[in-house]
Design goal:
alpha+beta; Immunoglobulin-like; 3-stranded antiparallel β-sheet; 32% helix
Length: 221
């Protein structure tokens, strides 16, 4: 009995001491108590947000999952088109005009092959328009004896663009006289198109389509 009373007395004494300690700390350090209480409240709020999900702050996983949906909803028809994209050869051909009334049939159209297989083209035709031609480019192809393309020994090309500067007045003569390729298999030359630029700045592409196998032309060198 005495032992039980002693233990009870000790417990009560400890309880009184703890109570007094809390009272003293509260009186002496009120700011510290408030700060610790605020920190605990914030920590608890953060834990609840992570567990339940906050409507004001979606998680990164939700954001990343929504990105494919946004991409899927984009309208391909609204994507900008590159205005500088070059036109296709088909559209260029549609814009071309027939040579008649623009450039005459060739008055001279032949070539020469020198000892090194250098090919010099001689071609002449008349400006049949009422405008001065400032620049012209002759687009041509080289053909072998069986009708297939023949190729330059250095570049491997079978199509060539020969550019010239005028002016060529109305009724004047457009002239090509140029060693433009080296190839031993060449048999004929076809002029497909001619690009014209007039003195007023306008441009025109002419479908020509003349071919020659005449190798009796002049040697430029």
């Amino acid at each position: 009995m005495k032992a039980l009373k002693a233990i009870t007395l000790i417990v009560c004494t400890i309880a009184v001491l703890l109570t007094c300690t809390v009272v003293v700390v509260t009186e002496l350090y009120p700011d510290l108590i408030k700060k610790n209480s605020s920190t605990a409240a914030v920590s608890q709020s953060a834990n609840e947000t992570v567990q339940s999900g906050s409507p004001d702050g979606p998680s990164m996983e939700l954001a990343s999952e929504s990105e494919p949906d946004a991409a899927a909803e984009s309208d391909p028809e609204s994507d900008p088109v590159d205005a500088d994209e070059p036109s296709s050869p088909e559209s260029d051909a549609e814009d071309a005009v027939d040579y008649q009334g623009v450039i005459s049939e060739p008055s001279e159209f032949k070539y020469n092959r020198n000892s090194a297989d250098g090919i010099t083209l001689t071609w002449m035709a008349t400006n049949q328009t009422d405008q001065t031609i400032n620049y012209y480019t002759v687009h041509l192809r080289t053909i072998n004896p069986v009708g297939d393309p023949s190729y330059d020994q250095n570049s491997g090309e079978s199509s060539f663009d020969l550019k010239y500067v005028g002016p060529v007045e109305p009724g004047g003569t457009l002239i090509v006289y140029q060693l433009f390729t080296y190839q031993g298999a060449l048999d004929s030359i076809v002029i497909d198109d001619i690009d014209l630029q007039y003195a007023d700045g306008t441009k025109q592409t002419v479908r020509y389509g003349f071919q020659t196998s005449d190798d009796s032309g002049m040697d430029k060198y």
